[in-house]
Amino acid sequence: MNKFSSFLKRKNIVFSFKRYCIDALSAMAMGLFASLLIGTIIQTIGNQCGVEFLSTMGGYAMKVAGPAMAVAIGYALGAPQLVLFSLVAVGFATNELGGAGGPLAVFFTTVVATELGKAVSKETKIDILVTPLVTIFSGIGLAMLIAPAIGIAASAVGNAIMWATVQQPFFMGILVSVMVGVALTLPISSAAICAAIGLTGLAGGAAVAGCCAQMVGFAVMSFRENRWGGLVAQGLGTSMLQMGNIMKNPLIWIPPTLTAAITGPIATCIFKLEMNGAAICSGMGTCGMVGPLGVMTGWNFSASAFDWIGLAMICLILPAVICWALGLICRKLGWIKPNDLKLDL
Q1: Domain spans of the chain?
Q2: Are 210 and 277 in contact (CB under 8 A)?
Q3: Staple 62 to which of 1, 12, 39, 177, CB 3.0 to 4.6 Å?
Q4: Residue 101 neighbours by CB under 8 Å, 6+ apart
Q5: Are the beta carbons of 84 and 71 closer than 8 angstroms?
Q6: What is the Cα–Cα distance from 140 to 102, expressed in whole angstroms?
Q7: How confident is residue 277, by pLDDT bands cut at 50, 70 and 90?
């Protein structure tokens, strides 16, 4: 047992919740942003402005989402060079085989392939052959076994959520908005979750509402502590920056979460806000304005004034006003004290 523990330590293989469910997932989100998300932004701008060059460029970036996610995960897990480079093939194959569940499948196969690759790395004199072989064989082999099933399951879950949202837009609007919004602020990837279950349509609109409620809500609510830097960092970056403060005082999470519960059903029942772009956009909110851009995808010149008003209200105006008001109430009640929302920017 001691030999095995020493081997794992030498190979930097750590079996822990933090390593896999926080570090790896957070890195996967970065990989998604550097490929599918930024590609979606570029392509959407190109489509909206009629610039074919941008549309093509964005399309290329979107196609390498699998390899980008795999390399990001491997990097977070401390993969040696040969393992890291071999993960490109693993990510590409898994994402292709996984369909709607591609990101989730990439996560599982990449973690396994990375750890097995790390285990054999530099253990033989023919490392140049052994390490890539083990990494690619284990990763793609596992993908062939589980990725299609994950894709089918993800599609089923996503379809069920979207169907339920259409049938019960009020209650599902609340549920989806709150859950995805909370996931956005937690150190996990709401974008990966939405991508994994293919969350689009009306349910995707509710998810956008929840994410915007957290990001814009925290940005405005904490303006007195963090000023303009905090407004931009949280409003266009991520509300995850507040996790440290939430751990100290969970009550600061009440205003943005209640805001999500309010704006979610408004999005589904009144404005009929739908995610027309990639499912991953549903879990991004105002990060790089990916959420609103995803909603705008396919609008072209067919959107009405009501559509534009709804988008502005759900993504910017209502989250700012409602969360600010709820935050003020919480401050009056003493639930939120001075500097509880302060960020080290």
Answers
A1: 11-154, 168-332
A2: no
A3: 39
A4: 147, 150, 151, 152, 153, 154, 155, 196, 197, 198
A5: yes
A6: 13
A7: confident
- pLDDT digits 0-9 by tens, 79-118: 999 999 999 999 999 999 987 678 889 999 999 999 999 9
Query: Could you give the dihedral angle defined by the CA atoms of residues 173, 175, 178 and 182, in that order, rounded to the nearest 10 degrees?
Result: -140
From the centroid of its chain, how far is CA 327?
26
Residue whose token pair is 């390899």: 67
3-state secondary structure the chain: CHHHHHHHHHCCCCCCHHHHHHHHHHHHHHHHHHHHHHHHHHHHHHHHHCCHHHHHHHHHHHHCHHHHHHHHHHHHCCCCHHHHHHHHHHHHHHHHHHHHHHHHHHHHHHHHHHHHHHHHCCCCCCHHHHHHHHHHHHHHHHHHHHHHHHHHHHHHHHHHHHHHHHHCHHHHHHHHHHHHHHHHHCCCCHHHHHHHHCCCHHHHHHHHHHHHHHHHHHHHHCHHHHHHHHHHHHHHHCHHHHHHHHHHCHHHHHHHHHHHHHHHHHHHHHCCCCECCCHHHHHCCCHHHHHHHHHHCCCCCCCCHHHHHHHHHHHHHHHHHHHHHHHHHHHHCCCCCCCCCCCCC
Q: Closest Cα to residue 196, out of 295, 92, 279?
A: 279
How many whole angstroms separate alpha carbon 278 and alpha carbon 235? 21
pLDDT, average across residues 165-193: 85
- Amino acid, res. 203: A
The CA-CA-CA angle for residues 289, 291, 297, to 5°, reads 100
Mean pLDDT of 258-275: 96
Q: Which residue has the higher pLDDT, 287 or 57?
A: 57
Model confidence at 165, pLDDT cuts 50, 70, 90, reads: confident
> What's the distance, CA 176 to chain centroid?
14
**Given this model, what pLDDT does residue 120 score?**
95
- Under 8 Å between Cβ of 155 and 195: no
Alpha-carbon radius of gyration of the chain: 21
